[in-house]
Design goal:
The chain has 361 residues and is an alpha/beta fold. It folds into 3 domains: 65 residues; 45 residues; 191 residues, Ribonuclease H-like superfamily/Ribonuclease H (Nucleotidyltransferase, domain 5), CATH 3.30.420. The protein is 44% helix and 13% strand. A 5-stranded mixed sheet has the order 3-2-1-4-5, with helices on both faces. Helix 1 packs across helix 2. It starts with 12 loop residues before the first helix and ends in a 5-residue tail after the last helix.
Length: 361
């Protein structure tokens, strides 16, 4: 099968070992592995047509790598620098984009767009977008967040998280809160169903049919919830809801209730009720820290799965829909899994405070 017109390709023992390793090793780049197989096949004396068929490539590719190996040996199998326009955006331009994004805003606006910044810096909007992506900058996004000023922040975090990760023996832990002002909204036009290629569509306007408040208590061990309707935000309503929880928990179990710092939760009627029910202990979350109360996660599911896309022509219809969803939840309830320790949460808050504690821009 030899061809006298082909450049002779003879391998030393060391070269053969290196090429065989490149061809077989999983971590070798696929292009380099294929070139190694081509050279090894050429070293057997096969012509380019046979090597191309054995290596599943074309003759021109075999000819190129045969010639480069003969001229440059192993170094010839490496990729050559790709042709193209040299880099046009300097490090100074990159720095200017980042600094302006972090420290300035355009006149009359709250944040930069890539086109506005591109005009000021003198590069393309695409280049601005690439720099933003490389540095993790997203000027168009904003998240709601507030650092708690509670002087007992650390103690309260340790208290609540301790209940989640290591609940007391023979005790029930409930996360309690109220979802106020749930609106019975009726869309002014029928909801159009989803069809292939088109999502469900609903009218942007609606008719209001009143509101209702919902008390909910999530059992952190089982995931089941106890609920009650409420007409007001008074301490008596919270007291009555605690009474409902009391009736549904085994009398020999202590009850720990995680709730926020609403004044109604600390009012005299509630305090008096707690004195009469010593097995109950209230654990207050830090100010502006509703994220630590697991019932908020359940409320988010309720909003997303039941309320957000619903259309309710009356309060009764709204209540019926809510009760049906809650019953379904309790039938298949599973507890939320809390994984962060108190130390991890506190460390994250401290790191964030360190990052934002520099001079205001």
């Amino acid at each position: 099968m030899g061809d006298p017109r082909l450049e002779p390709l003879v391998l030393s023992e060391d070269e053969r070992v290196v090429l065989e390793n490149w061809a077989k090793r999983r971590t070798t780049a696929q292009g380099l592995a294929k070139r190694a197989r081509i050279v090894l096949a050429c070293a057997r004396g096969w012509n380019n047509t046979v090597v191309a068929a054995r290596c599943d490539t074309d003759r021109s590719t075999v000819r190129r790598w045969r010639s480069r190996f003969v001229r440059e040996r192993l170094d010839g199998l490496a990729d050559e620098p790709r042709p193209g326009v040299p880099r046009s955006i300097t490090d100074a331009k990159v720095e200017e984009v980042v600094v302006r994004t972090l420290e300035e805003v355009p006149e009359g606006c709250t944040h930069w767009s890539k086109r506005d910044l591109a005009k000021v810096v003198g590069i393309s909007p695409t280049s601005v977008h690439r720099i933003w992506r490389a540095f993790g900058l997203q000027p168009h996004r904003v998240e709601e967040f507030k650092i708690s000023p509670d002087p007992l922040l650390i103690d309260k975090i340790r208290d609540v998280v301790g209940l989640y990760l290591a609940p007391p023996a023979k005790a029930a832990v409930f996360c309690v809160d109220e979802k106020p002002q749930i609106q019975a909204l009726e869309r002014t036009a029928p909801v159009l169903p989803m069809i292939p290629g088109t999502p469900e569509r609903r009218s942007f306007d609606y008719i209001r049919h009143g509101t209702v408040d919902l008390f909910a208590a999530l059992n952190t061990a089982t995931g089941k919830v106890i609920t009650a309707w409420s007409a007001r935000h008074a301490a008596e309503d919270f007291r009555d809801f605690l009474d409902m929880i009391d009736r549904q928990v085994e009398p020999q179990h202590a009850v720990h209730v995680v709730c926020d710092n609403l004044s109604a939760h600390k009012a005299p009627p509630v305090h008096k009720w707690l004195l009469a029910h010593p097995r109950f202990t209230l654990h207050f979350t830090p100010t502006y820290s509703s994220w630590i109360n697991q019932i908020e996660r359940w409320f988010a599911k309720l909003e997303r799965r039941c309320l957000q896309r619903g259309s309710f022509c009356s309060l009764d219809v709204l209540k019926t829909a809510l009760e049906a969803w809650i019953d379904t939840w309790n039938d298949t309830a599973r507890p939320f899994k809390w994984t962060k320790t108190a130390d991890q949460i506190i460390d994250r808050i401290c790191r964030y405070c360190d990052r934002i504690s520099g001079p205001a821009h």
